[in-house]
């Protein structure tokens, strides 16, 4: 009998590990859009002919994924968003605008998540219902958003709920603190012109610190490639204009030689015409040809001046590009510093609330017996609902439904 119990326990644990492994692998997949998601779309176009960027303000903005899984974008129409990544949706928008207006260059569309679709918590919690989704949301954090696990009416349970809620909020604030530290590190590195990020000492050994560092490194790489692309485009434009100036200079030399030869012919023919040896129409033809050559010289000088002005403008755009990017980084870093300054007192407040609650009810921290609670997640996978067991630390995805079930001890009745 004992051997059968041990075998059954091992089998149950192996089954749970298999389910959790599958859930973790699913959570690491690239996020796919779904109904009720709100996305922010920004479209800009690099105009090769003028060497400038144009912002498509009439298209940029926030769009909600409808119940049918589509978004409606001006000039493009209804686009299927359900099941797609933000990168796939951005490419579809860019392709649609290019085809709609017959553009030589595809507009650069960028899509990011504005608001995720909510998660739902049901069962033995204080406030079941829908709650906003945020990155790094886990089962325990979702329960804290729902007011904690449902308890009996005694006063000790209220203290326990307060402790659990404060701990959940402290976890959220701590994760945000780590993210802000990494963002500040990346912004400072971009301002300093550094290519790599080093793990800050205060986050060394912190769970998920490596993932946060990798995310910021990827953002920095993408920003650098974008700036390099713009610099390369402007430098290519300068090379093209310089070639045009050189070609115009060669053409001017040719026309000047024609002017010189025509003037010499005109002097010789004029001398002969004064003595009646050549008809006056010959003189008129030479004078007309000389005027045409001189007009060509004027056109060449005008075109050369315009090309040089365009080169100067491209130089100014290069300088402005660097200055604007530095100003943007400075503003973003100041905002990040301000968020960090606001985050610290909020975390201290939550710690103080936990300490105060435990001071008045020392046993409140142990009132919650995790073994009495079980958690189940219902998630849509490939268009079909799937249900699997979860732990408090299991990460959630937008649209998940978390079922919380409390199993009271046998002697409770």
Protein topology:
Elements: H1 2-28, E1 38-47, E2 52-55, E3 61-64, E4 70-73, E5 77-80, H2 86-101, E6 108-115, E7 119-123, E8 129-131, H3 139-145, H4 155-192, H5 209-274, H6 280-360, E9 373-381, E10 384-390, E11 401-406
Parallel strand pairs: 7-11
Antiparallel strand pairs: 1-2, 1-3, 1-6, 4-5, 7-8, 9-10, 9-11
Summarize the structure.
This protein is of the alpha+beta class. 57% of the residues lie in helices and 15% in strands.
Written account of the structure:
This protein has six helices and eleven strands. It has helices at residues 2-28, 86-101, 139-145, 155-192, 209-274, 280-360; strands at residues 38-47, 52-55, 61-64, 70-73, 77-80, 108-115, 119-123, 129-131, 373-381, 384-390, 401-406. The strands form three sheets. Strands 8-7-11-9-10 form a five-stranded mixed sheet. Strands 1, 2, 3 and 6 form a four-stranded antiparallel sheet that branches. Strand 9 (373-381) and strand 10 form a beta hairpin. Helix 5 packs antiparallel against helix 6 (280-360).
Which characteristics define this entry?
single chain, elongated, five-stranded mixed beta sheet, alpha+beta, 413 residues, four-stranded antiparallel beta sheet, 11 strands, disordered N terminus
């Amino acid at each position: 009998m004992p051997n059968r119990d041990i075998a059954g326990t091992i089998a149950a644990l192996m089954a749970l590990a298999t389910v959790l492994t599958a859930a973790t692998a699913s959570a690491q997949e690239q996020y796919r859009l779904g109904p009720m998601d709100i996305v922010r779309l920004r479209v800009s176009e690099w105009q090769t002919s003028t060497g400038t960027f144009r912002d498509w303000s009439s298209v940029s903005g926030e769009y909600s994924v409808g119940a049918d899984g589509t978004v409606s974008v001006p000039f493009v129409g209804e686009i299927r968003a359900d099941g797609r990544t933000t990168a796939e949706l951005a490419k579809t928008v860019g392709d649609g605008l290019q085809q709609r207006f017959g553009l030589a260059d595809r507009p650069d569309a960028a899509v990011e998540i504005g608001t995720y679709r909510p998660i739902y918590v049901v069962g033995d919690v204080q406030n079941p219902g829908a709650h906003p989704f945020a990155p790094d949301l886990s089962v325990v954090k979702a329960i804290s958003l729902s007011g904690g696990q449902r308890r009996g009416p005694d006063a000790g349970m209220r203290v326990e709920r307060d402790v659990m809620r404060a701990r959940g909020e402290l976890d959220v604030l701590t994760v945000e603190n780590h993210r802000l530290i990494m963002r500040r590190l990346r912004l400072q590195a971009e301002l300093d012109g550094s290519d790599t990020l080093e793990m800050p000492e205060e986050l060394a050994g912190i769970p998920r610190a490596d993932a946060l560092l990798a995310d910021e490194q990827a953002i920095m790489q993408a920003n650098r490639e974008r700036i390099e692309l713009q610099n390369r485009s402007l430098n290519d434009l300068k090379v093209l204009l310089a070639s045009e100036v050189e070609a115009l200079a060669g053409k001017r030399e040719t026309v000047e030689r024609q002017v010189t030869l025509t003037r010499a012919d005109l002097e010789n023919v004029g001398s002969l015409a004064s003595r009646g040896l050549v008809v006056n129409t010959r003189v008129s033809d030479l004078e007309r040809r000389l005027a045409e050559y001189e007009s060509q010289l004027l056109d060449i000088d005008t075109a050369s001046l315009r090309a040089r002005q365009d080169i100067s403008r491209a130089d100014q755009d290069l300088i402005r590009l660097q200055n604007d990017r530095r100003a943007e980084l400075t503003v973003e870093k100041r905002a990040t510093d301000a968020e960090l300054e606001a985050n610290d007192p909020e975390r201290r407040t939550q710690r103080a609330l936990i300490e105060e609650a435990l001071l008045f009810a020392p046993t409140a921290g142990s009132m919650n017996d995790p073994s009495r609670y079980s958690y189940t997640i219902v998630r849509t996978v490939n268009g079909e609902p799937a249900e699997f067991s979860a732990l408090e630390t299991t990460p959630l995805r937008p649209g998940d439904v978390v079922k919380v079930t409390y199993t009271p001890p046998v002697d409770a009745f």
